Amino acid sequence: MSATLFVAQRFTAFVLACAVAVHLGTILYAVRGGLTAADILGRTHGNIAFAVFYGVFVVAVAIHAPIGLRNVLREWTPWRGITLDIALGLFSILLLVLGFRAVFAVFSA
Amino acid sequence: MLDVDIWRGTATGKFQPFSIPRREHQTVLDVVTEIQREHDATLSYRFACRVGMCGSCAMVVNGRPRWTCRTRVNEVVGDGGRLRLEPLRNFTVVKDLAVEMTQFFEKWQRAHGYFEPGPQPASDFAAVPPSTPERQAADAGIECINCGVCYSACDVVAWDKDYLGPAALNRAWTLVNDVRDKGNAERVKAISYASGCQACHTHMSCTQFCPKAIAPTYSIAGLKRAVLRRSLGFTR
Amino acid sequence: MRASHKQRGFVAAMIHRLAGIALAAFLPLHFLALATALNGAKGLDSFLQVTREPLVQFAEFGIVVALAAHLALGLRVLAIEFFDFREKTLNALSACFAAVCAVGLIFILNSG
Q1: Would the CB atoms of A75 and B224 count as touching at under 8 Å?
Q2: N or C, where is chain A less crowded by C-beta within 10 Å?
Q3: Which residues from C are below 8 Å from A95, CB to CB?
Q4: What is the C-alpha to C-alpha distance for residues A22 and A34, in angstroms, rounded to an integer?
Q5: Distance between CA B15 and CA B165 in Å, rounded?
Q6: Quick check: ipTM above 0.95?
Q7: pTM summary value
Q8: Which of B159, B198, B230 is most worth mutating to test chain A (most A CB atoms within 10 A of its CB)?
Q9: Does C90 reach chain B within 8 Å, measured CB to CB?
C-alpha cells in the first residue's frame, strides 16, 4: 500500500483501538441476562454522545477495513489495479451508508 | 547412513535421493560436497568460505532457510530422519541448489541501499560517537552480508513480487541512521512506494532466521516511523 | 518448495488477518441488523429472536472473539511499529491470547 493508505490505516487503527475497547466492554456488559431491543434502544435513543461515538466509529471502520482488505486481495489473489481500488472504494461507501443508517436507526427509534 | 533428498532441476524438477555415511560432526555443506564429489558430479550448489562469513551456502534445509556450513546435520536430523535440501525460496532457481541473486540486489538498489556522500566531499572525518541512538540503530543492522536467508523466509516477498524485502529495507534503515549520509530525503521516498516498507506485516520470519541475529522487522518498523514523520511534514 | 510456516509471528499475523476478513464480512450484516430498529423496537426485537438460535449464538461468540483477537494482535503490530516494542514473542503473544480468551469467556458467561 502507498504511504498515504498506510498512514490512514494506522491512524484509524489507533482510533479503533479505543472505540473497539469501549464497544467490547459495552457488549460484555449488555449481553448479561440476554439482549432485548428495549435494552439496546433504551441506551441509544436520543443519546447524542452515543451517536457521535458510533459516527466516528463508522467513519474509522470505513477507512480501515477496505485498506486491510486491499492488502489481502493484492497479496492472496491476482486482482490488483484500478478495478480493485474502485471496488474497495464502493465497499467503503457501503460501510459509510449502512453504518450511518444504523446509527440513525438506534438513535431515533 | 544418512538419507538425503536434494532438489534437482529449476522451477520444475524433482527430489533425488542419496545415501551417504553419517559422520559425527558433519555439516550440511559437508553432505552436499560429499554427494557432488563422490556420487553425482552434475549437482550444482554454491559455497565459498565454508566458515560462516560469506553467506554463499544458504539454502532451505528441512523447510528452514539456513547457512549449510553452520548447520550440523545432528541439529536438524534425528536418528533415522531424512535431510531435505532445496534452493532458497523466492529466488529464481538457476539449477538445483543455486539461485539467481540479481533481483535481490536490484531491490537493494531500488531501496537506495547505498551511501550517498552528497555533492561536496567531506572536508574532514565525521565524528560519530558509537553510543548515539542513531549509531546504535545503524550498528544493529550493519552486519548484513546479503546471504538472502531473510528474503527466502519472507512471506510478503512470496506474495508481492515488487516488495523490496527485509535485507534491502534493513540496509536502507542503517543508512537513514547514518548521520553522514546526504540522501535520506530520497531514500525515505524510495522505500515508501507501493511495495515498500508498509507491505511488511510483522510475521518476523526474517528476524527468526537471520544467521547474524539482525532483526529486519525492527529496522522496517523504524522506516515506517520515518515514512509517518515525512507524511506529517517533518523532514527528519 | 515451501519454507516452514510454524513461526509464531506468522501464526499471529494469520489470525489477525483472518479475523479481519471475518469482521469485514460481518460488518454490513451488523449494520443491516441494527437498522431494523427503523421499524421501532418491535423491528429490532423480531430480529433479535433470530439471534437466539444456537448456531447464531455460536457465530456471535466467534465474531466477538475475532474482534478481540484482531484488536489484541493489532495492538501488537502498533507497538512494534510505533513504539519500537522489542517483542519477546512468546510473552507478547501469550498476553494477546490470554486477553482474547478472557473476552470470549466473559461473553459466554454473561450471555447465559
Answers
A1: no
A2: N
A3: 27-28, 31
A4: 19
A5: 28
A6: no
A7: 0.92
A8: B198
A9: no
